[in-house]
Specification:
The chain is of the alpha/beta class. The chain contains 13 helices and 18 strands. The longest helix is centred in the middle third of the chain and has 41 residues. It binds 5-S-methyl-1-O-phosphono-5-thio-D-ribulose (MRU). The site of 5-S-methyl-1-O-phosphono-5-thio-D-ribulose has 17 residues, from helix 2 and strand 11.
Length: 369
């Protein structure tokens, strides 16, 4: 997607054919810094430290991490060790396990001499597949935005609210929740995005606002608690969020605070859509609330905030009294009954087992193996 006059992806293979570059998302929106990843450990660190983040991008980075591991040592032991190290980075986004399991089961039967080339090739395919999927999500979600523009509000702007960053930075390109928005904007639909700031890490304020701004999409950053008020006053036409894991019965795990937006949307009759690529569905989990592991992150994300001072310095300051304990649950689960529809690469689906199973029978079969 666009950064100034350039087209960039969130992660890419360098000209040397083996090392990776990724945008360091910890430095946005103040500095555009590209990090070079040359080892499996560096890929794991990038995921753990959230240099890269967002479920699909975590999966893509992990796949390339396996390729870097195979470049260093293509033995069975190294294969298992790379899988284990990458798997331990973040627990909630199922795209990580999906990508690692796919890589390991493809590599395992191969002779060690063929593993490195095969790993790079499959990781590259996964990255391209992510982009193709997101374009599909964009085409299907576009119809929802166009319908509001044509039927409910002809001649007026369509207001979409989103939470966290499910934009191109969270994927290889295009994003999930943002793909329909970018397509609508590019086709001349007047679309405006309410961007939840998304405490504690501010992925909305720092990342979504940054990428929408570079693409020229009108947007307004709001504190996380504002959504209910906007919905009560008819200022939100639809909500579109991303997700880190969708259970077989359609429960949606996403960045902490998503559930509260779904409740407010339900109370105000605002459609609540979730955009997801099929690797985000976990057919091994049924009850999302009870079965999906919720990552708990360090207290510093809550006790401190980082920003740019008026004279251009990046500074981190404490905002919580010394000694006050804090809790930092990174995700929550929205039950399927609050979800109007799931925007996938195969269409907009009901959030239930039958609809997911009918659309993705091959994933059900793979989960049963
Ligand atoms: O903790 P993060 O920044 O990795 O969380 C990201 C989200 O919750 C996104 O909404 C989700 O991964 C979907 S990204 C297309």
């Amino acid at each position: 997607m666009r950064v100034g006059d350039s087209h960039v992806r969130s992660i890419w293979l360098e000209q040397d054919g083996w090392s990776l570059s990724a945008i360091d998302q910890r430095r946005l929106p103040h500095d555009f810094v590209v990090a070079r990843l040359t080892t499996c450990d560096a890929a794991a660190d990038a995921i753990r430290s959230m240099l890269v983040r967002g479920a699909p991008l975590i999966g893509a980075t992990a796949a390339y991490g396996m390729a870097l591991a195979m470049r260093a040592d293509a033995s069975n032991a190294a294969l298992d060790q790379a899988h284990k190290a990458l798997m331990a980075t973040r627990p909630t986004a199922i795209n990580l396990k999906w990508a690692l399991d796919a890589m390991r089961s493809m590599l395992r039967p191969l002779p060690a001499s063929e593993r490195m080339a095969a790993a790079y090739s499959r990781a590259g395919e996964m990255a391209e597949q992510d982009i193709a999927i997101n374009k599909g999500i964009g085409r299907h979600g576009l119809g929802l935005i166009e319908a509001v523009a044509a039927i409910k509000k002809p001649g007026e702007r369509v207001n979409v609210l989103t939470h966290c960053n499910a934009g191109w930075l969270a994927t290889v390109d295009w994003g999930t929740a943002t793909a329909p928005i970018y397509l609508a904007h590019d086709r001349g639909v007047v679309v405006h995005v309410w961007v939840d700031e998304t405490r504690p890490r501010n992925q909305g304020a720092s990342l979504t606002a940054w990428e929408l701004g570079h693409h020229g999409v009108p947007h307004t950053v709001v504190p996380d608690n504002t959504g209910g008020h906007l919905m009560q006053h008819g200022m939100v036409d639809l909500v579109i969020t991303g997700t880190d894991r969708v259970s077989a019965q359609g429960d949606v795990c996403n960045k902490i605070g998503t559930y509260l937006k779904a409740l407010a949307a339900h109370d105000n009759g605002v459609p609540f859509y979730v955009a997801l690529p099929s690797p985000t569905i976990d057919f091994n989990v049924n009850d999302g609330i009870r079965e999906i592991p919720i990552e708990q992150r360090g207290p510093d994300e809550v006790t401190h905030m980082t920003g740019r001072t008026a004279d251009g310095r990046i500074e981190t300051v404490r905002i919580v009294p010394d000694g006050s304990p804090v809790a930092n649950y990174a995700f929550d689960v929205t039950p399927a009954r609050l979800v109007t529809g799931l925007i996938t690469e195969r269409g907009v689906l009901r959030a239930d087992r039958a609809a997911l199973a009918a659309a993705f029978p091959e994933r059900i079969a793979a989960a049963a193996e």
